[in-house]
Amino acid sequence: MTIAPALSVVVPVFNEQDNVAPLLDEILAALRGNALLGDGGFEVVYVDDHSRDATLATLQRLRAATPELRVLHHAVQSGQSTAIRNGVKAARGAWVATLDGDGQNDPADIPKLLAQRAQAAPEVKLFAGWRVQRMDSGSKRWASKWANAIRARLLRDATPDTGCGIKLFERAAFLELPYFDHMHRYLPALMQRAGWQTVSVPVNHRHRGSGVSKYNNLGRALVGIGDLRGVAWLIRRSKRTAVEELP
């Protein structure tokens, strides 16, 4: 019988042909033989969002030489949130770590998140990366600063950086959250809405290795306005209560 891995690492990618192999090597270096994973080990689930370059071909080549690697492919480009959700649904680990596929997140920070989980209360279901020193352009840092300030005021999620791609969360808790496009930007607020606690952990942030960003400030802002209103509505309409089964 196949033993389920202790951790699944989910990486969504779109047109990242030059970043796939270096990032995978770093994931393997960070997690192979890591004592925090016990005997379960780990798997890496790449989700190709219908790339138009050689990303999928590169993943297929790497898969032949990497037993931990699994590859999913979207028949139609569907966006990062859908890629993450499909990766989590396919994951076999009880806990999932996510990374952006552009190489700006550092896989060496995954053990740091695992160490935080080991000493946290059971009620903490999400450990969110916090990019203390951003390596993005000045305009992108400025836009992110204002977006985080507005989000914090509306959602009161006490999270300094929800846009960081590196996160660690319980798979079952994630799959109970309401799904919508761009939901990955609001995971702390959604987890707290579900009754769980979240913790922000300082992590490394790096310059993009190659390729170009798939987002621009204006597009992110326009989408974010509607998303913020929707998430705020979800929080206002949420009701939770303890449930007891009678003997």
TrEMBL record:
One of its GO terms (biological process) is lipopolysaccharide biosynthetic process. SUPFAM superfamilies: Nucleotide-diphospho-sugar transferases. Residues 8-174 form the Glycosyltransferase 2-like domain. GO terms for cellular component: plasma membrane. InterPro entries: Glyco_trans_2-like, Glycosyltransferase_2, Nucleotide-diphossugar_trans. GO terms for molecular function: undecaprenyl-phosphate 4-deoxy-4-formamido-L-arabinose transferase activity. Transmembrane segments: none annotated. Keywords: Cell membrane, Glycosyltransferase, Lipopolysaccharide biosynthesis, Membrane, Transferase, Transmembrane, Transmembrane helix. Pfam families: Glycos_transf_2 (PF00535). This is Glycosyltransferase. It comes from Cognatiluteimonas weifangensis.
